[in-house]
Amino acid sequence: xxxxxxxxxxxxxxxxxxxxxxxxxxxxxxxxxxxxxxxxxxxxxxxxxxx
Length: 51
Known about the structure:
Layout: H1 23-31, H2 46-50
């Protein structure tokens, strides 16, 4: 997958590739069932999806 915005930034955001150190910040997002309600792919456990 190509990261089109990688290395770019705006006044509020810096776009970068997700890193292993981001795990604790992303886990609550993946634990919330509403964040994936429209995903069509097979769902994994939140811990596995976050990795």
